[in-house]
Amino acid sequence: MKVTISHYEFLKQFPDESAARTYLEGRRWPAGAVCPHCSNRERVQVRKVVGYFRCLACKEDFTVRTGTIFERSHIPLDKWLYAMYLISTARKGISSLQISKELGITQKSAWFMLSRIREACGNGKKGGGLLSGIVEVDETFLGGKEKNKHLSAPNKLHKGAGHEGKQGVMALRERGGRTIGVMIGEDTSGAMLVGQIRKNVAPGSTVCTDDFSGYNQVRKYFPNHLTVQHNAKIFIDGMAGTNGVESVWAVLKRGYYGIYHQFSVKHMQRYVDEFTFRLNEGNCKVHTMTRIDALIAKTEGVRITYKALTAEA
């Protein structure tokens, strides 16, 4: 059975805002409109203006945009839906410049759309519960390489080619299951790493890491702690191995260097959420619309304003 939808087929399916609105209403309210203000469904009245509803219980008007990432946006819903198609199917991500060209909007508006969609990607990260079974854990660092910076560059740290000045990201991947990505900044202390593992992994699970000293205390909380000696060029040792979680970095870094070129510290967690969403929901064996539906399901209750996005960190 065909599981992918081409750009042409998608645009034929949603040729205008009316088609997109009808689809979004069906996904959000499969049994009929529900008031997002008071959750009443029995006393909802359809207004004369297409797409508008009134709740007779709380006297509030609403649309399918209310309480979602689409709220107070002047961009038509068919363009929003197409942007969600693009971000769901672009393995390495898609830039705001490319989105602006695809949708015929300004780059500023495209960046705002993408930021809101990324905010939705991180909605309900713990919805699937704690990771369990065999969980691989690793961390990486994103940022310019010291050796590539000019000696006079203001951000040259003159501390060698390590990870000084870079931002750390930690990933936890359940074998055959979900991935959770967390921005950890420059803090790679044992307390930070072990704390994140305890927060995201169910007790009794088997945790696989490399031989970094920051993981020395993992066995205190997870007796089934397996390590691989990367320093000794050993990458698989029985059940021990982190190749699965390291494949997360293969995708993330291709997007970082090839598409986005950099992530600001303030918005880095949103970018990480975008990539982990695609890893969890974006399997190419899953039907394209199923992937988009998974993203639509996350759009409610996570609206973020442009002022909040651009405020000083």
Write a structural description.
- The chain has 313 residues and is an alpha+beta fold.
- It folds into 2 domains: 7-29 and 64-123 and 288-310, no CATH class; 134-263, 2-Layer Sandwich (Nucleotidyltransferase, domain 5).
- The chain is 37% helix and 15% strand.
- It is built from 11 helices and 10 strands.
- It has a 5-stranded mixed sheet, with helices on both faces.
- Helix 3 crosses helix 10 (288-296).
Considering DSSP H and I runs of 4 or more, what fraction of the residues is helical?
25-40%
Question: How many domain regions?
Answer: 2
The coarse overall form would be globular
Low-confidence stretches: none
Instruction: Determine the strand fraction and express it as a percent band.
Output: 5-15%
Going by helix content, strand content and strand pairing, the class is alpha+beta
User: What is the overall number of helices?
Assistant: 11
Separation of the first and last Cα atoms: 47 Å
| Major sheet | 5 strands, mixed
